[in-house]
Amino acid sequence: MDSALAYKRHFPAINWLNSYSLYADVIDQYMNSQISPEWSNLRSDAIRLLQEEAELEEIVRLVGQDSLSPGDRLKLEASRSIREDYLQQNSFDEIDTYSSLNKQYKMLSLIMSFYYQGVKGIEHGISFRDLSRLPARDSIARLKRVPEDQVDDTADKIGKALAAEIAGLLPQGVI
C-alpha cells in the first residue's frame, strides 16, 4: 500500500511502479487465451507508459509541461487515463465496485488505442491540444460507469467514434 496514493484518495492505493506479481506470466497466458490475444501486449505497453510518466514528471516539475514534446505530452495524458480511468476504483459505486475481465480489457484497449492512434496522429501533424479535446476521451473515462451488459456495445461505439474523430483531424489524403 502507498500512503501517498491513499492521501490523494486513489484507491486501491497500490503503487503500480513498485508492485509486482509472481503470477503475471500465468495471468497473461490466461487472459490471452480467454479474453484477447493482445492482452499481454496492452498490459506491457500500459506499464511502460506509467514508468515513462514517472520519468517525465520529474522534467515537468523542473521546467513545466510546455517544454515537453507533443509525443511526451500524449504519454502523460494516456498515463493519466490509465491511472484515473482504469486503475482507480470507487468501491462505493454500484457499477465501479466490480469489473469483469472483459470490461477491464475493453477499457484498457480503448485507452491504449487513444495512445496508439494519437502517436500516429501527431506524426501526421495533429496537435496534442486537439487530441486531448476529443469527445471520445470523455466517453472512455465514463466506460467504467457502464453496466456490464452494455460494455461490449458501448466500447465498440467509443472505438469507432475515437477513430473517426482522429481521422477527422488528419490532413486531407492521410489515412
Task: Report what the structure shows.
The chain has 175 residues and is mainly α. It has one domain (22-169): Bovine Mitochondrial F1-atpase, Atp Synthase Beta Chain, Chain D, domain 3 (Bovine Mitochondrial F1-ATPase, ATP Synthase Beta Chain, Chain D, domain3, Orthogonal Bundle), CATH 1.10.1140.10. It contains 8 helices and no strands. Helix 4 runs antiparallel to helix 5. The N and C termini lie far apart (45 Å).
Would you spell out the secondary-structure blueprint of this structure?
Layout: H1 3-7, H2 24-34, H3 39-63, H4 70-87, H5 101-123, H6 128-132, H7 135-142, H8 151-169
Helix pairs in contact: 3-4, 3-5, 4-5, 5-8, 7-8
Question: Could you give a quick summary of the protein structure above?
Answer:
The chain is mainly alpha-helical and 175 residues long. It has one domain: Bovine Mitochondrial F1-atpase, Atp Synthase Beta Chain, Chain D, domain 3 (Bovine Mitochondrial F1-ATPase, ATP Synthase Beta Chain, Chain D, domain3, Orthogonal Bundle). The chain has helices at residues 3-7, 24-34, 39-63, 70-87, 101-123, 128-132, 135-142, 151-169.
Mean pLDDT, all residues = 87
Which CATH class?
Mainly Alpha
Structural class: mainly alpha
CATH topology: Bovine Mitochondrial F1-ATPase, ATP Synthase Beta Chain, Chain D, domain3
User: What would you give as the CATH superfamily?
Assistant: Bovine Mitochondrial F1-atpase, Atp Synthase Beta Chain, Chain D, domain 3
**What is the CA-atom radius of gyration, in angstroms?**
17 Å
E-strand count: 0
Binned, the helix content reads 55-70%
Report strand %.
under 5%
Which consecutive residue ranges, at least 5 long each, have pLDDT under 50? none
Task: Determine the number of helices (DSSP H or I, runs of at least 4 residues).
Answer: 8
Distance between the termini: 45 Å
CATH architecture call: Orthogonal Bundle
Would you list the SSEs in sequence order as H and E?
A: HHHHHHHH
Query: Outline, from the CA principal axes?
Result: globular
The count of domains is: 1
Described by strand count, sense and barrel closure, the largest sheet is: none
